[in-house]
Design a protein that fits this description.
It is globular and about 65 Å long. The protein is about 30% helix and about 20% strand. By secondary structure, the protein is of the alpha/beta class. The protein binds NADPH dihydro-nicotinamide-adenine-dinucleotide phosphate and N-acetyl-L-glutamyl 5-phosphate. The site of N-acetyl-L-glutamyl 5-phosphate (X2W) has 16 residues, from helix 5, strand 9 and helix 9. NADPH dihydro-nicotinamide-adenine-dinucleotide phosphate (NDP) binds next to helix 1, helix 3, helix 6 and helix 9.
């Protein structure tokens, strides 16, 4: 029998993406609410408790509320918001991260979907911390640019709705100058770093796609690792993964495009190094709505329901 799935927040940016990925699948039945009911707690509570698995594509407070409305102990949850990414009792839904991540996701009733900046950063840094190439105390920084769909409907309106009150002509803008970006807690916890990284994000005038960079001065690390040591650790960490790969060491590209993986569920890691200067630039490319949100949520759903990990994805 088909598994019953409810997407709470199905009319939002992430919800629509996920709906699109699931709607043609014959192994799933989507439970849906009429537009007039989609924000009514009683109607949501009914379908939240009827489903085998729910995906929350809501602002953080509404995601917490949705979890509180679930009384049926059989219902399984994938939360795409920031609300539960470091919460006890929740499994971090990054299937490729640790050798047993997929197994833990499969066994869990509560799975939090990683943030898009966090996905890129953790993918690059966690294997290096685990291999002791990067000491947990090391002061790591990261920068990058995301498409504006990363900010959901309100940011999409800022960039697209010419007649709206928040419209902007901006091409690239930095943000998070409070040094308190909402992904920092998960970035710290799930890499094993002792301190939050310094994150310098920006958003650009393109809909989807992102590029995140972690520059490292290898000469300052214990044991003076070479760029090839960093590459070897990352290649080993993601060997066999279908959605994450380390770009092969070929001719160094002149430029990289933040939109390179838009429309895909892939996460590609690049290692650019210079042996003489003892420096590397680690770069992750992904689609914020793919492996950065909807793609990862569908991957987690597949794993939790015992379906092939990449069903409906590649
Ligand atoms: N966009 C992205 O790239 C990513 C987003 N996420 C996370 O996914 C979640 C959704 O984000 P996103 O899709 O971008 O945001 P959107 O603003 O595009 O969508 C949120 C949806 O939730 C609906 N909603 C708000 N409050 C309630 C409520 N109380 N009950 C039911 N529905 C409600 C909104 O309704 P209405 O349409 O009326 O406004 C909207 O449709 C967020 O937590 C976000 O942080 C995670 C990774 C990446
Ligand atoms: C461009 C932009 O504003 N992006 C959002 C993150 C999008 C995202 O992935 O946030 P969650 O995963 O936490 O929902 C931001 O940096 O706040």
């Amino acid at each position: 029998m088909a598994h019953k799935i409810f997407i709470d927040g199905a009319a939002g940016t992430t919800g629509l993406e996920i709906r699109q990925r699931l709607s043609s699948r014959s192994d799933l039945t989507l439970l849906e609410l009429a537009d007039s009911e989609r924000k009514e707690a009683a109607a949501r509570a009914r379908v939240l408790n009827e489903a085998d698995l729910v995906i929350l594509c809501l602002p953080d407070d509404a995601a917490r509320e949705a979890v509180s409305l679930i009384e049926n102990p059989e219902v399984r949850v994938v939360d795409a918001s920031t609300a539960h990414r470091t919460a006890p009792g929740w499994t971090y839904g990054f299937a490729e991260l640790e050798k047993d991540s997929s197994e833990k996701i499969a066994a869990s009733k509560r799975v939090s979907n990683p943030g898009c900046w966090a996905t890129a950063f953790i993918a690059l840094v966690r294997p290096l911390v685990r291999a002791d190439l990067l000491p947990a105390e090391y002061p790591v920084a990261a920068n990058g640019v995301s498409g504006y769909s990363g900010g959901g409907k309100s940011m999409i309106a800022e960039f697209e709705n010419k007649d709206g009150p928040t419209y902007t002509e901006t091409v690239v803008r930095g943000y998070a100058y409070t040094l308190a970006h909402k992904h920092l807690p998960e970035m710290t916890m799930h890499t094993g770093l002792s301190h939050p990284p310094v994150l310098a994000p920006s958003v650009g005038r393109f809909y989807r796609g992102m590029m995140v960079e972690v520059p490292l001065a290898l000469w300052s690390l214990p044991g003076n690792p070479a760029p090839r040591d960093i590459r070897a650790v990352l290649e080993e960490a993601y060997a066999g993964a279908k959605l994450v790969d380390v770009a092969s060491e070929g001719p160094v590209p002149v430029t990289l495009d933040a939109e390179a993986l838009k429309g895909t569920n892939a996460l590609r890691l690049h290692v650019f190094g210079n042996d003489k200067s003892g420096q590397v630039r680690l770069v992750a490319l992904l689609d914020n709505l793919g492996k950065g949100a909807g793609g990862a949520a569908v991957q987690n759903l597949n794993i939790m329901l015992g379906l092939p990990e990449t069903e409906g994805l590649v």
